[in-house]
Amino acid sequence: MVTEAMVRKCLQEVGVPGATRNLEKLGLVRGVTISGKKVKITLASTALNNEAQAQVKVRTQEAVAKLSDVGRVEIEFVEVRPSEINQINYVVAIMSGKGGVGKSLVSSLMAIALKRQGLEVGILDADITGPSIPRMFGIATRASGSHSGILPVVSRTGIEVISMNLLLPEDDTAVIWRGPLLSKAITQFWQDVVWGKLDYLVVDVPPGTADASLTVLQSIPVSGVIIVFTPQDLTAMIVRKAVNMAQKMSKPVLGVVENMSFLYIPEINKRIELFGKSKAQKMAQTAGAPLLGQLPIDPELAKLCDEGNIESYSSESFAFLAQSIIQMLSQAAAK
Ligand SMILES: Nc1ncnc2c1ncn2[C@@H]1O[C@H](COP(=O)(O)OP(=O)(O)OP(=O)(O)O)[C@@H](O)[C@H]1O
Ligand SMILES: [Mg+2]
After folding, report:
1. Contact (CB, 8 A) for 202 and 92
2. What is the pLDDT of residues 4-42, one digit of tens each?
3. What is the residue-wise DSSP string for 258-309?
4. Cα-to-centroid distance, 310 and ligand 2 (Å)
5. Span 4-80 CATH architecture
6. Residue 115 burial by CB count (10 A; 0-12/13-18/19+): exposed, middle or buried?
7. CA distances from 284 to 121, 210, 239, 255, 281 (A)
8. Nearest protein Cα to ligand 1, atom 1
9. Which of 38, 123, 272, 300 lies in the 20 to 30 Å Cα band around 109?
10. Domain boundaries, the chain
11. Coil, strand, or helix at residue 48?
């Protein structure tokens, strides 16, 4: 006797054109009914154009027909909104009251660290006018989809990425939009993208506390916020601004990360505080949240970012990020 579990297991082998994850992980399987030797499978057609649907249909039929005791395999496509498909456990927003402090870098390293723990991870690049995630990951392909949804592009190590750059004809096309359009794009990255089943979605929030950041906190169900800063003079004000914003929107601040904290010179085994004395502990107090870590200035890291090779960065200094975040979020959830 064929069971639903057996059929669903087969569906895990069915790849979706334009995506690396299978039907089941993308959440596209909407129902399986079995009557005698006949199996009927209902699939969401979301983000699949006609050609992709035809391919998925053939692949599904072939995969399921391999089971013994299966006679006819019927496939039905239904239109479902991405928001009904997506199952995302935690959404973490990376913010700062200031530009250029390393938000995109921390977002990327965090996603990489979580992925290395074997989790399903996505990055939503909410910086519409200055997207930098695809460049750091060396993603040159474009996102695919249909009128009903967009499929994220997958990085080399399997992180799902959506960014304005992946939708533009050329990398250097300028997006010259006003606030309302930017907000609309951010909302669409949440609502119209087939994220499927994810453990973590990391949101790279644009700099400052203006419109776009507000949209992220308003229209995306953010589980918690992480604030990035550097040890420079205006740090306290920058951190306070971001904290105030998170608090106003009733989002918990999970922790703070100090970037460019120090420069380590191995030859003399010395740490130099290039941008001044670390303010990490004080900022953690200001934010009323733990210090999740301090990242050094690492020329190797800057080079890997420029080469689009950030996923090959191996350093102990950020492995803790994943661990701290998992811990913070499970504590917050328990509360
Ligand atoms: N710890 C570090 N070591 C070396 N280079 C770094 C470090 N942090 C950031 N950089 C470099 O500085 C640049 C700016 O970082 P990043 O793009 O992450 O900042 P950002 O806060 O996202 O900026 P924006 O506000 O423009 O979005 C990047 O090109 C990155 O390579
Ligand atoms: Mg950035």
Report:
1. yes
2. 999 999 999 999 988 888 999 999 999 999 998 999 999
3. E-S--EEEGGGTEEE-TTSS--HHHHHHHHTS-EEEEPPB-HHHHHHHHHT-
4. 14
5. 2-Layer Sandwich (3.30)
6. buried
7. 26, 23, 9, 7, 5
8. 297
9. 272
10. 4-80, 84-334
11. coil
Q: Which amino acid is present at 279?
A: K
Beta bridge partners of 75: 41
State which H helix or E strand residue 76 sits in.
strand 73-78
Segment 224-265, tens digit of pLDDT = 999 999 988 677 888 888 999 999 999 999 999 999 999 888
Beta bridge partners of 271: 264
**How far apart are the CA of 300 and the centre of ligand 2, in A?**
19
Which residues are within 8 A (CB) of 24 and not within 5 positions of it... i.e. 6 or more apart? 8, 11, 12, 14
Instruction: Report the candidate in 6, 16, 13, 18 with the shortest Cα–Cα distance to residue 44.
Output: 16
Query: Residue type for 326, please?
Result: I
| CATH 3.40.50.300 at 84-334, yes or no | yes
